[in-house]
């Protein structure tokens, strides 16, 4: 059992390597994009709707409500980005029930990429909501001496997001590997179910933290 999908190499040519992290990440994105296209292909506003549309509406409403409760009043503006973050991390864990599949979130490179997305989105939404001048001035509060510390805070927050998600996903994989070596016939099903639960919790925590960071950046003074 591999602790990280980076360890699984499908193709190697010199310094170029195609590992499971890249392959499974693109597979996951294709599945999510294709599934979204199929579900939204024939949306209806009538009383009679397909089961997939009802399920989609439930998911959207739940995510929308969580965004609002985290402090963003115009949840629909941020739904696309934050909803995609949640669904990607959640689906990455959910698909581990497929034999041979390794969650790409078990790689530090994937979690770092997700954290960088949040790092870019926070100032982007902050500038869009408050204007570039007002947003940049927030780094000088409560005093201009805080500028380097506020910048360091932004960078360390991004690092913490990546390491937190990676650490939690990796710890679950390590525990499963240890238990499989001790008793390969008793624990796998239980630990797989626990891994799915852990993945869903991490998806929720990651998306909520991203929401809180964006809410803080877009908050208007006064």
> How does the major sheet shape up?
2 strands, antiparallel
Rg for CA atoms: 20 Å
Oligomer: single chain
Please count the helical segments. Answer: 7
Number of strands: 2
Which structural class matches the secondary elements? mainly alpha
Averaging pLDDT over every residue, what do you get? 80
Give the end-to-end Cα distance, rounded to a whole number of Å. Answer: 55 Å
Which shape, going by the Cα principal axes?
globular
What strand line-up does the widest sheet have?
1-2
Q: Give the fraction of residues assigned to helices.
A: over 70%
Order of helices and strands: EEHHHHHHH
β content, as a range? under 5%
Question: pLDDT under 50 segments (min length 5)?
Answer: none
Features:
single chain; 222 residues; mainly alpha; two-stranded antiparallel sheet; 7 helices; 70% helix
